[in-house]
Design brief:
Elements: H1 3-9, E1 18-20, E2 30-43, E3 49-61, H2 71-85, E4 92-97, E5 101-108, E6 113-117, H3 139-149
Parallel strand pairs: 1-6, 3-4
Antiparallel strand pairs: 2-3, 4-5, 5-6
């Protein structure tokens, strides 16, 4: 989800809710402690120099049980970050701590923002020696195919 998308969604909501893909909700008393941009400048295993840039939201669960972030407040924080930090309309990455700090993509299901799990991947598979995935066949299926074309005493073998 891009920053422009969340800005369109927020004015239509009564509450801001975040949910993990496993169904667990971020506690309703969470805080958005950061809105900013993150630039990652790196070289992949194939030697290609890359730049990635995202808008970052950091969610924090404090013992402030009476706190409820309203959509207008989050929209104000976003607008302030755009004004003061010149944040661009980029994809949003959300940081949220469970066992460790996790990074999530952001989606919306019509009511709730969904923190979508991210995973690592090789960006240079063609040059780092990862073999192409072989087709997996059960041996029993292979045996059935062979027996259907040639049977003992049929004279085909």
């Amino acid at each position: 989800m891009k920053l422009s998308e969340i800005k369109k969604i927020l004015p239509t909501l009564d509450n801001v809710e975040f949910q993990l893909e496993n169904g667990a909700f971020v506690p309703e008393h969470f805080h958005v402690t950061e809105v900013g941009s993150i630039t990652k400048h790196f070289i992949d295993c194939g030697g290609v120099i890359r730049n990635e840039k995202v808008v970052n939201f950091q969610l924090w669960n404090a013992n402030d049980f009476e706190h409820r972030l309203k959509p207008t407040k989050l929209l104000h924080i976003i607008q302030l970050s755009e004004e003061k930090l010149n944040i661009e309309d980029l994809e949003i990455e959300v940081e949220y701590q469970s066992e460790t700090i996790g990074k999530y993509d952001l989606a919306f299901d019509g009511k709730t923002f969904i923190l979508q799990n991210k995973s690592t991947a090789c960006l240079a598979q063609d040059s780092c020696g990862i073999p192409a995935e072989k087709q997996k066949i059960n041996l029993i299926e292979l045996n059935n195919e062979a027996s259907s074309c040639c049977t003992p005493n049929s004279g085909c073998c």
